Here is the input.
Amino acid sequence: MAATRRLTQLLASTSSRIDLPAGPLVVALSGGADSAALAYLAFHLGEKVTAVHVDHGLPDSPKMSVAAAAVADALDVSLTTIRVDVKRGPSLEEKARDARYNALHSLDATVLTGHTRDDGVETVLMNLIRGTGVRGLGGIPAHRPPNVYRPMLDVTRDETREIATLAQLPFVDDPMNQDLSLTRNRVRLELLPRMREINPQVVESLDRLSRVARAETELLDELAAPHLGPVIPISVLMTLPMPVAERVMHHALEAHGVGATADRIARMWQVATGKSDRQDLAEGRRVIRDGALLIIE
Here is the structure.
């Protein structure tokens, strides 16, 4: 009875903090507690829910696939499994993530992922370690265009785990989450516990930082929007405040399929200011100055 009351309390509390897009909805069901809780919450809110599981073909993937199927069966929702090929080698975590999102983006459906507030805070720290601008401090965006949404960014990992446990969902913990060769796991298992020794409320503090950063990013995007296009008039770029000019260059790089790193934006700025006629960017792409225009080719 106490467990039932606690589950009812958790459902009331978390339901008011999740932001579900219009249905029908497909939950990306990993087999872990977070996505299991998300499927349970969406079902509890009366949404029409189905599930998809991405099998990465890694050593622990069979275990996670069995768990995803068991959770889907417990919730009586249909499950589709997509198998992807993740090439071995450096940056395995990044390659698996890219393969997973490519699969989810290929679906003609509104897809939900079980990212929590804790995931967002970990992402902020990872971006800080790598070197980031304001956008990176914003953590995980709630929407990854065109069709992936993260409705639980205001819900904690402890809450999702408790919901999944009290609802008796047969989730399992991914053994890969204990692999300290992966950056996110070192941040989660080593860095954040040490930071809590200094500030027990560090997760809440970093969450506030990410909210401020997201608001500033949205403002800069609005200011940059009138100046976006296939090419950039250099005279216009020179009149913009530097943070807005950097955002225009950021969007230009992304629009051409080139990752918008600080180094590449600096290279574009060198060409824009006449310090260079052209600069290499990545994978054969470059930025050139053609008369009064800045062009990525």
